Amino acid sequence: MVAFCFLAAVFTWGLGVFGSSVYLHEVTKARGWSVSLVSAGITVFYLAAALVLPAVGAAIDRRGSRSVIAGGAVLLALGVGAMGHVAAPWQLYAAFVCMGLGYATMSVIGLSATIAPWFEKYQGRAVAMALTGASVGAMVVVPLVALSIARHGFPATTTGAAAVAAITLVPLAVVVLRYRGPAELGLGRDGAASPEARAGAGAAAAAPAWTRAEALRSLALWSVAVGFALGLTAQVGFFTHQVKLAEPVLGATGAGWLVGVTGLAGLLGRLLLAWIADRIALRGYAAAIFATQALALVVIVIAPGAPILVVMTFVYGFCLGQITTLSPIIVRREFGAASFGTVYGVAGTVIQLSSAFGPALYGVARDLLGSYPPVLAIAAGFELAALAVVLAGGRR
Prior knowledge:
Elements: H1 2-17, H2 19-31, H3 35-63, H4 66-83, H5 89-105, H6 108-115, H7 123-152, H8 154-176, H9 195-205, H10 212-216, H11 219-240, H12 242-276, H13 282-302, H14 306-335, H15 340-356, H16 358-369, H17 372-392
Helix pairs in contact: 1-5, 1-7, 1-8, 2-3, 3-5, 3-6, 3-15, 4-5, 4-8, 6-7, 6-15, 7-8, 7-12, 7-14, 11-14, 11-15, 11-16, 11-17, 12-14, 13-14, 13-17, 14-15
């Protein structure tokens, strides 16, 4: 289960989230369309995903992951395959909608809800390990796509990438995800096989289920939703503008390398979280990560040299992989597995909708204030607000 979710994350983030920057460049070059027109398509991608996230979580709770993720893999492949052949803006937006719907099924919510019934003691480790696939997608898939475009062209590359994604993910989803939980195999959670272990896992599974209405009244859930929405709005905006921010200091080539280093840092952060997630107080750890990100931004503002920029961006990227993974782990620990998809669907929608506007907020603030340092200072304030909200809403 974890290996499949890891592989799904590789394709979803590699061809969807991080691949969007490649599509932006190639479509504007091929069609002569404005950057703003194509960028709006990327916003459509995130908004389409956000709007269906509650339905995705609820569907996985009710019917299991197999049909949801298999269908999402087909939609993702259709969107990616169409991207290299769009001839009108409406076709571009339709392709991004398909990609967004596919991404929703295999985003943090979809993959975490798939894993939730299978683990109790090691649920933090399992989710963190699965989502390391997102970092691998950035480090492996995006460079391979760029290399293929240089050799075979954009249309052939998107068609081939779509075929590989569909041929890989759909059969595996049908085979691997045919069981909704370990009880169907006569096992307990965490792979337990003894009657005592199964009994313990059964007691955990019997924890009260939450309805969406009950979740909406929970301060603990809203603290996760609002806190991580604030943090990820600042974070997504930073990484979207990273190249433009770094280019005056490092040059175009150096800024490109810095993006790769950031992806590596995110992978290392997720690996650390996988090692410690089940042994720590998660809200306190999340607060420490937000504080570290705020400090990194402030240091970049007050000491804007190349060495500081590289080191602090690495620190910020190290936190990136953990922030995107911590919110489902916290919700799973505090609300249980029985209705995880439904409950986290509420938080995930708020987080996704808010963070989708991070790049635009950075851009508007940059134009109004004239440079990036004031924008980074404001973003640091967002991080500190996230810290306060996450700590304030802890369940007692």
